[in-house]
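To: structure subgroup
Subject: Chain for Friday's discussion

All,

I'm putting the inputs and outputs inline so they're searchable in the archive.
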Amino acid sequence: MTNARQLAAEAAAQIADRLGGGFDATVVLGTGWDDAVAELGELEKQISTTELAGFPASRVEGHGGTVGAVAAGDRRLLVYRGRVHLYEGNSAAAVTHGVRTAAAAGCGVAVLTNAAGGLQPHYRVGGPVLISDQINLTGTSPTEGTEWGTDRFVNLVDAYSPRLRALAADTSPATPEGVYAGLRGPHFETPAEIQMLRNMGADLVGMSTVLEAIAARHCGLEVLGVSLVTNLAAGMTDEGPSHQEVLDAGAASGMAVGRLLRGVIDRL
């Protein structure tokens, strides 16, 4: 049976054939972040991820399911528009296949973005937050199983690169930092669960990113995480969260956060 390393190498070879090589960083754009692509640089070419080995189709609105080559100054980016999730019935290996493929394609940096619920009342809906650390509450890991042997024990101290966070802070000094809690979903959290997460030290909550960050570090990539606060979490307002609210906030703010990402990339 083809393992995760082999699938990533096969997909990376297909990317080299279809999109070329020489990639410096990969960017994973979360729900509603599509408008950020134009701010990152010139899109040279893109293809459907389903044309590549090992990529399942995304079935979530707001996740385009494409990968493209973007020229950002003297940097070349491998940009995923959308991702797949555990709650779609995918395995941890499938969810992290994109970042493993990016590593096999030569990327040294992974920029992981997402839409998140804000657990701090001072967070601005539509504003970015740099991820300083994470809490993995998905109940799984991309390094579990027999494939990895002793290589499975990933050191996650400074999982989110202090160097990259400093570059982001230099680009946008007013952008706050926070701890991201990743849950399986797809249901939104209850007010009691939100209170639990706040007691645990979480500032943001979402349904992605944590497994990708683990896999990226496992592959030796330097990781920057950026959440777009698309709603205040359950119990913090009179209204409950909705997926449409997430899409709307992303559409309204995509270009601004795209400029933040480009500022970091220019400083790499």
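Points worth raising on Friday:
The chain has a mean pLDDT of 90.
The radius of gyration is 17 Å.

D.
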